[in-house]
Amino acid sequence: MSESVERHRRAAPEGVRVAVLTISDTRTPETDTGGDTAQEILERAGHEVVARHIVKDEPSSIRTALVDLLSRKEVDAVITTGGTGISGRDTTYEVAERLIHKRLDGFGEIFRTLSYQEVGSAAILSRAIAGTVGSKFVACLPGSRNAVRLAAEKLLAPELSHVVFELRKHEKGR
Q1: How far apart, in whole angstroms, are the C-alpha atoms of residue 152 and residue 94?
Q2: Model confidence over 53-83: pLDDT tens digits?
Q3: Of 32, 73, 129, 157, which is least packed with CB atoms within 10 Å of its CB?
Q4: Which SS3 state, helix, strand or coil, does residue 147 take?
Q5: Helix extents (H) in 32-75
Q6: DSSP symbol at 84
Q7: DSSP state of 153
Q8: Per residue in 12-47, pLDDT tens?
């Protein structure tokens, strides 16, 4: 790993304040295994889950929830689960893509590469996306527990603090 990345990771906050938003027409707090998985892995990595919500897979509901969570001072990042597939009801990607100012294309690319190792060519069906909205980070994951585990363990837990450090650095520089 480069010296610069290591230096940034050392300067990054130890924990990030995260909101977990599950997008589903069927999940309830009792059956939200994707949200549970995200919360468990992120907290184990030292992050704090400061909000957790479930909304129906309706574009206006998703947008309202994302805008609300991203506007909260106590939220540094929003992680969504669900609605990133290709069915007619999957609209998370379209909503998030319109809100994102700077896309982090590598997130989706690496997620699909890692996913391919687990599920094979079905990985092409994922429209996982991440980026920045102002000084906040948003990542949209598929709803399955295995997909959330993969993204949270391999991408979010190791890099979330670094991403927030970079976003805060940019904010301070203005």
Answers
A1: 22
A2: 999 999 999 999 999 999 999 999 999 999 9
A3: 73
A4: helix
A5: 33-44, 59-71
A6: -
A7: I
A8: 567 899 999 999 999 999 999 999 999 999 999 999
